[in-house]
Amino acid sequence: MLHNKYVENYIKKWKCGKLLLNIKRIQLIGLIEKHILPRDDLYYFDEEQIENYIEFSETWYFELDEWEKFIAPPFIFYFEKKMMKLSLMSLLSTWDEVEGRMVSSPH
Prior knowledge:
two-stranded antiparallel ribbon
């Protein structure tokens, strides 16, 4: 089972009733719990990069909300063990905004 303090704290607060979430966020938590967290044989979170991201963002930009810290591990710093590359790229297309519309990136 994958572990990350920001993901676990966010989910725990929601389950205890301390956070009120919309249906999309609840569905997202379900996907993370079902497809990402149990697969420590395939994936890992880069904890050092997560902490660096949070520290950098809060030092140079603004304090991050809980949901911003929650979303970083499973979607920004979530890697495949075998491929050693960002898993998000294998799940989603990279999108660029060109002339006001969304188009698939040639990456």
